[in-house]
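#help-structures
NK: newbie question, is this the right format to request a structure? protein is NUDIX domain-containing protein
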Amino acid sequence: MIDTVAWVRIEDGRILCARPRGKDVFYIPGGKREGAESDLATLLREIEEELTVALDPASVAHVGTYEAPLGPGAPDAAVVRMACYTADYRGELTPSSEIAEVAWFCYADRAAVPPVDQLLFDDLRAAGSLA
């Protein structure tokens, strides 16, 4: 089980996605917890590391938790769990050195993200949040 936490940022019906350097796939921003780190601590650290903004801890709200196989080319048993949260932020969204680019995706871009992210896309579309 690969345990991750992700930041769901939607603006104008599009969701923020990031492509790490050296990868050809976009992901919902976030990452893996370190040790016994809480979801909140992981979220705050990962988003600051990836996008150089500070999330407001008081505004963090759980959106959902999703599980899916890692995807093509991964071991059959590899499963990703992604706990998703919304939050307000301070600063300017700027990719850090570990992020090659950011993009705003709509539902039509669903195929460009991993299976676990696709589950989030489906729920956001059903809720009317994702164009």
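mod (FA): yep, format's fine, and the tokens are attached above. The chain has one domain: 2-126.
NK: thank you!
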